[in-house]
Design a protein that fits this description.
single chain, alpha/beta, Rossmann fold, 5-stranded parallel sheet, 3-stranded antiparallel sheet, 8 strands, 52% helix
Length: 220
């Protein structure tokens, strides 16, 4: 069974998907982490962010590995643990540009399908239900108001000790919404058959139980 959770930036997809996977005792794949890791590597190696073929080649040469470890999933590039580094502001600002390239998405989708070809999974991203696994048994489009998503992102960054401006984060959320929904390759859309879950004002436990309940119904 595949549980596909899509949605815009800051909707809480990774947090919710990880918790749903725990509740169902199945695997979890964070596709956003894969794009972020590629973006980080491009920034570190100087590969231009507007060069889709070069970025796709980088993705093929340095495939991202996601592993379970102390404290949760670890994101590895070779022997380098980049779990925290991929959440830094420079990566967040650039990841939508990297992910928009068709050649990059082709590489990443192939990798995602390879990772999830066996077993049961919860997977989150922008195009899981629409492109990566259109036949997923459970499809959810997770969203929230722009203000709510900006507040969550702000709280997350402040909790990590970063000094950030809420207004700037809100502007970035709106910019990423526009970039993700208007790109030519796999734009952010509500997939056919997806259930829209607006989490504005909802607690994480409520959201997790709702989606886990949907999966349990399908599995019966």
């Amino acid at each position: 069974m595949i549980v596909a959770i899509d949605g815009p930036a800051g909707a809480g997809k990774s947090t919710v998907a990880r918790a749903v996977a725990r509740a169902l005792d199945i695997g979890y794949l964070d596709t956003g982490a894969m794009y972020r890791a590629l973006t980080l590597r491009a920034l570190r190696t100087g590969v231009p962010l507007d060069d889709g073929p070069a970025l796709a080649s980088l993705a093929a040469d340095e495939p991202v590995t996601l592993t379970d470890g102390p404290g949760g999933m670890r994101v590895m590039m070779g022997a380098d643990d980049v779990t925290m580094a991929i959440r830094e502001a420079d990566v967040t600002a650039a990841v939508s540009q990297v992910a928009a390239h068709p050649a990059v998405r082709e590489q990443m989708v192939a990798r995602q399908r390879q990772l999830m070809q066996h077993g049961d999974w919860v997977c989150d991203g922008r195009d899981i239900g629409s492109v990566v696994f259109p036949a997923a048994e459970v499809k959810v489009f997770l969203t929230a108001s722009v203000d709510e998503r900006a507040r969550r992102r702000h709280a997350e960054l402040v909790g990590r000790g970063e000094r950030v401006d809420l207004r700037g984060i809100r502007d970035d959320v709106e910019r990423r919404d526009q970039a993700d929904s208007s790109r030519a390759a796999s734009p952010l859309v509500v997939a056919d058959g997806a259930v829209v879950v607006d989490t504005t004002g909802m607690g994480i436990d409520q959201v997790v139980e709702h989606i886990a309940g949907m999966a349990r119904e399908v599995a019966r």
